[in-house]
Please model this.
Amino acid sequence: MKIGIVLPEAPGYSETFFNSKIRGLIESGFEVIVFSGSRESEKYNFEHSGAYPVYKGKKLKQLLLTLFVVSFTFLKQPGRVIRLYKLERKSDRSLSQSIKSIYFNSHILQRNIDWLHFGFATMSLNRENVAKAIGAKMGVSFRGYDINIYPLKNPGCYELLWKNVDKVHSISNYLYEKALSLGLRDNIGKEIISPAIDFSVFKAKADLGKIKFPLQILTVGRLNWIKDYETALSAMKILKEKEVNFTYSIIGEGSELERLRFAVYQMKLENKVHFMGKLAHNEINRKMTESDIYLQTSMQEGFCVSVLEAQATGLLCVVSNADGLKENVIDNQTGFIVEKRNPGKFADKIIEIMKMTDEERMQIAINARNRVEQDFKIEDQKIKFKIFFGDQIDR
Amino acid sequence: MKVAVYSGNIPSTTFIEILIEGLSNAGFEIYLFGKKTKDVKYNSNVRVFPTPEAGSKLFLFTLKESLKLLLRNPKNFSKILKKIYSKKNEFRSFVRDAGLILPIINNTPDIFHMQWAKVIQRYPELFELLDCKFALSLRGAHINYSPLNDAKLANAYKKYFPLINGFHAVSENISKEAEKYGAERKKIKVIHSSVKSDLLKKESISYANEDILKIISIGRFHWKKGYHYALDAMKALKDESINFEFTIVAQGEMPEEIVFMINDYQLSEHVKIINGLPYESLIDKLCKSHILILPSVEEGIANVVLEAMAAGVPVLTTDCGGMDEVVTDKLNGYIIPVRDPEMIVRKIKEFIDSSDETKNKIKSNARTVIQKDFSREKQIREFREFYESMSAG
Model:
C-alpha cells in the first residue's frame, strides 16, 4: 500500500516529528511518497515530489508553463485530469480555478497511491477533490492552528474537506471535538494519535527534583503571539521584583523577536532573559537537562510536543490551561496548570515549586516521565498509524 | 529660511503634513523631496521636487538632475556621482539613489530636517554631500525599539547622531532614549505635537449610570498598541456584568491574535471593529464615546489622546513613552502602568463611579492642558525657535 503525504515543505534532516512518522510508516511496510511545495531535489530518506512553481508577477511565463504542465499531465493521466476538472466544476469552482487546480496538483495526479494524506488541514485547501480524482482515500491531520485559528478568519473553509475526507487524525481529543463543532461529521473515521517521544533521544536529567540557583527556566517554541511570551516575561518581571534568583531562556525564532526584545528592555530583564535562537534537537535536549523549570504560557495549543519532551526529561512543567495542554499535563501530578494570560499566577506557581521539598518535586518529575514513557511511546504511535492507514474503508 | 521637511513620501503622515502646513503659514520656505503618491494642494511657499518611482521616467529624471549638477557644480560633479554609485556598485540602484539625492543637492535648503531616524541609515552620504544644517525628529518606534533588535541601526545612530545640528524630540521621554545613542542633550529640543483648536469647541456625550458604557480605542493594528491587553480587560468587565461596548477604530487587516482573543473570550457581542474612518467621522465617533483608552506599550505622545482631551472625551492611557507629560492621574484623565489589564478594569470602574462633578472637572482640566501646551501656535513658535537657534549655532 502506498501513502502520499502532503506537506508544505519536505521535512529537513532535523525535523524529527515528520521524519519519525515517515520512518515508522516505512518500517510498518507502507510505501511513502512526500508531496511538498518545493521542487528542489535534496537527499531524503523517502520518495519525494514537489509541486510546480508559481511565478508571481510573470504572467506569460506562468501561462506557458501551466499550459505545458496541464497538457503533459493530461496525456499521462487523461482520466484523472478529466475527473478532477469535473469535480472542481461541480464544487462551484470557475473554469480558471479548475485549470489552476490541475496545475497545482499535477505532481500528485501523476502518481499511483492508495492514500492521499494531508499533514495539516490547511494543506488540503484547493486539493479536496484530488484523492477522488486519482481513486485514493483521503486522510488529514489536525494541528492547533488548522482548527483553532485559521477558520476564525476563513469561516467555512473546510466545507469541502469535511465532505470528501475518509479519515481524520487529531493530536488531541480537544482538537477533534473542535473539528466536530466546525462541521466534521462524527461518522467519519478518526484516530487520536498524540505526538510521541523517542526515549533514545530524551534521556532523563540527573538529580530529578533538585533545583539549583540561579533557577533555570526554559521555553522552547516559535516566537509568535500564540505562545504568549509577553505573559512569560511579565511573570519574570514579578519574580525579579520578588528577588528570585533565576535566568529564563527561550529557544526558538520567529516574527516577533522585536516585540519581545522590547518587552525585555521595558521590563529591565536584559540580564535575566536569553533568546537562544533556533537550536538543533540534540542541543535542545542538552539545554533541557540543564534546566529546572519548563514554562509554557501559550494562549492556544493543539497538544505541544515540547511540553512532552520536557516531561520526558524530568523537568517541572508549568503550563497554561490552553486546551491541548490540559491533555498533555496532569495538574499537580505530572506538572502544573495555570490560568492563561495571568503572569501573577505563573510567578506564584514557580515560587511555590521552589518552596517544595526535593522529594515532592522528584515525585512530580518521576510521575511525568513515567506517564510519557507509558502513554506516549513512539512504538505505540507507529502501531496507531499502521491501524490508521491499514484499516480498510469501503470505497 | 529654506527648510526641507524630509520623510521620503509626498504627502507624508498626518502629523508631518500638519507641520508642513503650519511652517508654511508661518512664512518658512518649505522644500519637499521624495516619492509623490498623491497630489496635495500646498501653500505657494511650499516647493515640491518629486522623484518618479521607477522605469524610464526615473532614468530621465536622474539624467536631468545629473546635467543640472554638472552645470551648477562641475568641479565636484564626478566626485558626487562616484560617491552615490559606490553605495551599491550597481547601475539600477545608482539611478534610484541618485534620483532621490541629486534634487536635494541641486536645491540645497538651509536646514535638512529628517522626520524619521532611519533615514540616517539609508542615506548617510547626505552628511557629506549636503552643505547645510541637519535636523532630526525623534519619534516613536525608530528610537524606542527598532534599534534594540537591530544592532546595525543602533550603530548607525551612534555614528551619525554627532553630525546632527539639532534634534526635535516629540517628548521628554524619547529624548532620554535618544541620548543612549549619543544625541547630545543640549542639541535636543522637546516640541510636543499639537491639535486643531476647533476640537476644543466640540460637544461630547457624558456618561450616566444606566448607559451602556461606550469605550473607544483608535490606532492601527500593531502589537505596540496593546489591544490584546485591552481585550483582557474587556473580558474582565464582561465577567463582572458591566454593560459596555468597546469599539476599535483601526486600519488594516485584523491580526489573528485579536480575532482569536475576541472569539476565545466570547466578546463578539461587546467588541466592534471599524476598519478606518475619514477624519470628520472619526472625531464624530470619538465624541459619541464615554471614554477613550490607549492600551499601548510604546508611543511618543499619542495624538489621539490629545485629540480626545481637546474634544472633551475622558482618556485612560498607559504611562508609555511621553504620555505622562500630558496626562496626570485623576486630574485631567487616568494613567496606568503598561501591560496591566487589571488596572484598566479598576480605572474604568473608578470612572464609572466618579461623580458628575469629578467627570466635568477632568474634562475641563484636560481642555486647559491642551489649550495651554498643545496648541498649533505654540508648536510652530517652538519650531521657529528651533530652526533659528540651529542656523545661528
User: Anything to note?
Assistant: The domain at 197-373 of chain B is CATH 3.40.50.2000 (Rossmann fold). The interface with chain A takes residues 144-146, 148-149, 223-224, 228, 232, 254-257, 259-261, 263-264, 297-298, 338-339 of chain B (CB under 8 Å).
